[in-house]
Amino acid sequence: MSDNSHSKAALGGVVLFASAAVAMLWANLHVESYRAIFSTTRSFINDGLMALFFFVVGMEIKEELTRGALSTRARAVLPALAAAGGMLVPALIFARLDPGGAGWGIPVATDIAFCVGVLSMLGDRVPRALAVFITALAVFDDIGGIAVIAIFYGHGLQPAWLVASVVLVFLLWALERRVRLHGVLYAGLGAVLWFTMHQSGLHATLSGVALGLLIPAELKHDTDQEAPLASFVTLWRPWVTWVVLPLFALANAGVPLGGMGLAAFSSPISLGVALGLFIGKPVGIFGVTFAAVKLKLAPLPERTSHYRLFGASIVAGIGFTVSLFIAALAYPGGAELEQAKAGVLLGSLVAGVIGALVLRAAPKLPA
Question: What is the count of structural domains for the chain?
């Protein structure tokens, strides 16, 4: 990410936090109006608008794989291993606290917007190489989260519709290799792919990921035109950052505490999620990274101490967006969903604050 991208990510994190705070206040001051509005619009936001979020995620993954932090094996090994540890340990913690519970996938996610936002606000206490490492880790985390959603949170596969989805993906891939497709055609075929994937039993938003990964990163012939991937990211990232994600936070972060009290934060579900994010993430990320460096599988990021790595690993426990998304898939509604949301909010808040304080205590890096 460029410095400009980091500053926008930081501001995007602030907007997300503000949206979540408004949702919590609204849900507790006037729960009837909150439920009246979002009970009818939440499905459109979560199943429809969030497809745009996953479309941008798919393009960002491709961007990092083709010319970013994951473009070479040497640069990808350490964040890939760290991401695996940061997904496995939280899932195990949740499974220990709520055996057989459907929400084990909730704490596996890292929210890249919030994480980059926190790291950006800490300025010269976070080496650039460490920020790039956490960004790459979050990309692998996104890939893992997408796999978890696709494999474990579908609603019964329908083979005919699944085949139709695969055929459409292949058609887009074949067309893209022969001609430069117009954005309108991508949108039209993407909408059809969304429908077939929804009918197939996979979550419809995965169509956004598939479409994003298919966008060409380079032009086939030398030309002054911008490659489709770069132009689409430039077009859609602001809409996702300033419209889709704040709406998603507003619709999903509201947890009405009346009648539940501390039970919302002390159930096996909420504790499993919160401890998975705040404890499981740093233990998994730091532990695997430390072991990989000791085994000489990969070096630490430049100018990064183990102390700074540990602080950044805590910050990676902010799981807001995808964690809330998986929570809505794991628990269709009721008290279980509210407890899962409470766990996401509590774990993410503690991880962000403690991680920032740990990094803040580090000495400033020399120029």
Answer: 1
- For 9, the token pair is 């990510």
Q: Is the distance from CB of 139 to CB of 60 less than 8 angstroms?
A: yes
CB 207 within 8 A of CB 183: no
User: How many C-alpha atoms does 244 have within 13 Å on its Cβ side?
Assistant: 21
Contact by Cβ (8 Å): 262, 75: no
Task: Give the confidence band of 4 by pLDDT, cuts at 50, 70, 90.
Answer: low
Residues 6+ apart with CB under 8 A from 327: 103, 106, 252, 273, 337, 340, 341, 344
Q: Would residue 175 count as lying in a domain?
A: no
CB neighbours of residue 230 within 10 Å: 16
In a domain, 268, yes or no: yes
User: What is the average pLDDT score of the chain?
Assistant: 87
What is the share, in percent, of the chain residues with pLDDT greater than 90?
Answer: 43
b vs e for 233-261, b when ≥16 Cβ sit within 10 Å of the residue's Cβ? beebbeebbeebbbbbbbbbbbbbbeebe
Report pLDDT for 154: 75
**Residue-range definition of the domain harbouring residue 297:** 3-153+238-360
Pick from 61, 324, 52, 330: nearest CA to 194: 52
CATH number of the domain to which 262 belongs: 1.20.1530.10
Separation of alpha carbons 29 and 348, rounded Å: 23
What is the model's pTM? 0.86
- For 333-363, the pLDDT digits (tens) are 788 998 999 999 999 999 999 999 999 998 8
